[in-house]
Amino acid sequence: MSQTCSGLNESIIHEARSYYNELLGDYVAAYNVIHVYIYQFLCVVGVLANISIIVVLLRPVMRKNPFNLFLIAIAVCDMTLMATYFIYKQIEMCHPWYFSYSWIVFTHAYAVFSVFVHSLSLWLTVVMAVLRFLVLKGTSAPRSGLPKMNNFQAATISIIIAIFLTFLGSAPNMLRYQIRDGGTRAVPLSCLSPKSKYAQYYSQGDMVHAYTLGQPSFWSCSWERFSFWTVGLMLKLIPCVALTVFMTLLVKMLMEAKERRNRLCRGSMPSSGGKSQAERTTSMLVVIVAVFLITEAPQGILVFATGVQPTVQIAMQLLGNVIDLLSLVNSSVNFILCAMMSHLFRRQFLLTFGICCPQTSENVSGAQMPPPRKRKMLISSKFCLRQEKSSSAIQLSNDNELGPQETLLTKTATENGFNTRENGNSMH
Known about the structure:
Layout (H helix, E strand, L loop, with lengths): L2 H4 L3 H48 L10 H23 L10 H40 L11 H24 L2 E9 L2 H4 L14 E8 L6 H45 L11 H32 L3 H7 L1 H13 L1 H8 L1 H11 L7 H5 L12 H14 L12 H12 L13
Antiparallel strand pairs: 1-2
């Protein structure tokens, strides 16, 4: 918030700056030295990882799952954010391009667009969690009266809702900036200093045409406060609370389904050393919640702390690179989560990019084929597998994906003359 709107005088600002510099200055200075290497690594690797997500999810087998639309949209947002951030950080103060009109246009676009795409990825995660909760709720309670949600129409509508909510929250920020012509002025003395790595481009008395980003003429303290609280509520607080609530509900439902399956299937299936799909999904949901809260909650806390105590904005400015790091980490881990959560994603990734990787049943599907089971266990095992499928409805892989155990049971039952259809629905 600006000095005028916050009601702070120069002495208070100076005192707060001294306090935060003493509190955080040494730590921030130490991190800023290595930030240039960390952000470059995260941006390059993150962009490539998100491109691979898009390529894999666009394969014919993956296009059957409507929830992959969310993952593609999130990958596009994250890839765009990291690519534009990487470009933005390359042109520093005193760089010859820094004073050009084309660069100030890019800076203006980045100031508006980066907030939008980052917030859109968060809202896409929220609506995906809400829709997945409704799908799981409808699966566990068929008579709940909920319409069918596991289709492309519901996914498309949800994505449109996410775009609308993001636009609503970031609209004031889009109006906050305009390009101003500062006229021709002398090159700043800092650019002529021998310590500047761009000093060789300038000579004493050189003139540059300066452009700056400022606020439009209609902007006032009322607009400033409205923009601040709109961004804080719509793009920080509500997404954090909503995602935490719905992810908690999803984990709770999956744990209940796991317990119910264990009660129904106790003693009917041999124990297995590996986790079930529901257990893996539950673990990954906890990881998603943890990553989201670790990367986004600190930003939300700082935003609302600034609303209560405006001098906190000085601390936010000092921690700018640290906050950027949290956003980059959040944008670059989706590939790891997809690979850990979905056998089908790993299989399609290896088929697409793993030319040099051995295509064994273990490294493709994540589990070795179990030994055949006896005929007398087929009926009860079939029922338990159907319970397993129901409890795993939250998985991000294709809903029709068969695990190796289920495939083996289907094949064995067919060879022994068992009818694997019940009430007109196939086992898979």
